[in-house]
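Hi Y.,

Following your request, here is the sequence exactly as I used it, all 273 residues.
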Amino acid sequence: MTTATRRPRIAVHKFSSCDGCQLAFLNLGEPLLALAETVDILHFAEAGPIDEEAEVDIAFVEGSVATSQDAARLHGIRQRSRYLVTIGACATAGGIQALRNLHDADEWVSGVYAQPEHIDLLADSTPIAESVKVDLELWGCPVSGEQVLGATKSLLAGHLPRVDHSAVCMECKRQQAVCVMVAKGQPCMGPVTSTGCGAICPRWQRDCYACYGPAVQANVSALATHLADTGMPADEVARRLLFINGHAEPFRREGLDWQARVITRQGSEEEQG
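Below is the corresponding structure, written out as tokens. Let me know if you'd prefer a different format.
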């Protein structure tokens, strides 16, 4: 079969992650089976096929770069892929494991393992885009399976899909969800977080935790100040920002600023005490 007539090829690769984004892909069910009738899925360990060296049209990557082996493997995937698409918070912003970027990773490893010299762990957990060129980023913790499916169809048609980075608040309006920040005083991250989840947490009267990363032109500083004005301690404000997508700007920049305020205050209290 020639390149012009062969079916499109897809691979799904895992790096440091919980597999949740791959499961979101699998949970598509029948739409995924329909996709498999039109493309060849050559590598997707969670689903069965394994061929990590395959040359593909689209390589989906879940997880962050956390070890030296990750970095080397990733460059090979990039070379063998026409499009490389990151899926989920770990791949797009370092994920939960990027919390270690704020501390001494070697100290943590030494405190857990009897022989830490055998642990291959980089000092930081970093997004895929910090190591190789990424053609499209799909945020979420986990990513939306429908969004992955839509991106696949767009890329195979020869164009990048439009990703909505408007705030979750806009989705709440569309879903007619009561604002949990206004009605209940909850510390919701919706005003600065991209939609994509369907505002699932606010619709269940829970505050948003920023699973889908920063919204376009997000005024994170204003939200952080508001949270502090409502009585949230500075260290809790920092934790809210430096969480699921804490390595992503502007969450990282603002979160580190509030973290520095805590350190400065503690130092002042020690001098006075």
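DSSP finds twelve helices and five strands in the chain.

Thanks again,
Q.
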